[in-house]
Design brief:
- With 141 residues, this protein is an all-beta fold.
- The protein has no helices and five strands.
- Strands 1, 2, 3, 4 and 5 form a five-stranded mixed beta sheet that branches.
- The protein is globular.
- The chain binds copper (II) ion (CU).
- The site of copper (II) ion has 2 residues, from loops.
- It comes from Arachis hypogaea (Peanut).
Length: 141
């Protein structure tokens, strides 16, 4: 299954790049994928997202209120990945006055405990105005 691949690395939909450098086009352009669309185990892709977290006014229940959004959405965007893929999420904290960490519930974080997103336990918070790059392998789906 392929997720969207609009070719951009920005926005909530993310982009898909083969983790194996040999599968990429020269020059780091748009990635090439096997013609039949299948990958063997160990040929996971890189799922790259850029998220901007901020407060926005939304009316989820018809009453306007401030909510925390990711790329303008609340709830935030969905990450689509398969077992063996590497998820990379660059999170920018635009909350202005609040620290931030993202916890990836259900991801075991084997070999990457510092990306588990528990502020003060496994990572320092992402300070207002800062960007933090989470990177982990999806070892089971
Ligand atoms: Cu959890």
């Amino acid at each position: 299954m392929y997720a969207d691949s609009d070719g951009t690395e920005d926005g909530g939909e993310g982009s898909i790049l083969p983790a194996d450098e040999s599968l990429r086009e020269n020059g780091g352009g748009r990635p090439t994928l096997p013609v039949d669309g299948t990958l063997r185990k160990g040929e996971g892709r890189i799922r790259h997202y850029r998220w901007d977290v901020k407060y926005e006014y939304k009316s989820p229940d018809c009453f306007k209120k401030l909510v925390i959004t990711i790329n303008g959405r609340s709830p935030g965007p969905t990450i689509q990945a398969e077992e063996g893929d590497t998820v990379v999420v660059e999170v920018n904290n635009s909350l202005v006055t609040e620290n931030l960490a993202i916890h990836w519930h259900g991801i075991r974080q084997i070999g990457s405990p510092w990306f588990d997103g528990t502020e003060g336990v496994t990572q320092c918070p992402v300070l207002p105005g800062d960007t933090f790059k989470y990177q982990f392998v999806v070892d089971q789906v």
